[in-house]
Amino acid sequence: MGMSVIISPATPDDAEQILKLQYLGYQQEAELYSDWSLAPLTQTLESLRAELAEQEFLVARLGDEVVGTVRGRVDPDGVGRIGRLVVHPRMQRHGLGGRLLEAVEERLAERQPVYGFELSTGHRSLGNLRLYARLGYRQTSVREVSGRLSLVTLAKTVAAPLAASA
User: Fold this and answer.
1) Residue 82: beta bridge partners?
2) Under 8 Å CB-to-CB from 144, ≥6 apart: which residues?
3) Whole-number Å distance between alpha carbons of 82 and 92
4) To which H or E segment does residue 120 belong?
5) CA–CA dist 58, 108 (Å, integer)
6) What share of the chain is helix, strand, coil (3-state, %, to 5)?
7) 37-76 burial string, b = 16+ CB within 10 Å, else e?
8) Residues 119-156: b if buried by 16+ CB within 10 A, e if exposed
9) Whole-angstrom Cα distance, residue 162 to residue 28?
10) CB atoms within 10 A of CB 104
11) pLDDT tens-digit series, residues 3-13
12) What is the pTM of this model?
């Protein structure tokens, strides 16, 4: 009998697994851009633990193993800033990234009114760009970070502010 992947809020005990998954997941990005100094690959455990306390983190679990993660926060203007969506390579292409992205959007909207969402990815990350477009995100800008990397910012607006019911 197979196990189901469960998406839930991360706990401080998940920090090490999140960091290891992040490191594993961003290897493909590092290869794409020939840059192993990407922030997700150099983040420390202490830094990740600090982010856990400041942002909403979700994890996807298969049994006890963290196989996916995403984080986000809502800025003062009501924009949900989403970052570091990572799915274990063996779990990719099964819809888990989309489930995590939709779950973090819902989670952020439970906390306060959200007028839209924003995220970024590298210009060569075609799988990411396709996923985000499929989920309603549209490119708003491209910023050159280095000769090898440009960050594409994508946004999704919502017709009416999303917020938890009273």
Assistant:
1) 72
2) 150
3) 19
4) strand 114-122
5) 11
6) 40, 35, 25
7) ebebbebeeeebeebbeebbbbbbbbeeebbbbbbbbbee
8) bbbbbebeebbebbeeeebeeeeeeeeeeebeebebbb
9) 34
10) 26
11) 699 999 999 99
12) 0.90
**In 43-95, where does DSSP find H-type helix?**
45-54
In terms of Cβ atoms closer than 10 Å to its own Cβ (0-12, 13-18, 19+), residue 8 is exposed
d(CA 102, CA 113): 16
Report the 10 Å Cβ neighbour count for 161. Answer: 12
Query: What is the CATH superfamily name and number for domain 5-162?
Result: Gcn5-related N-acetyltransferase (GNAT) (3.40.630.30)
Domain ranges of the chain: 5-162
Residues of the chain with pLDDT under 70: 1-3, 160-166
The helix (H) or strand (E) run that includes residue 117 is: strand 114-122
Whether the CB-CB separation of 102 and 135 falls below 8 Å is answered with yes
Is the Cβ–Cβ distance between 147 and 157 less than 8 Å? no
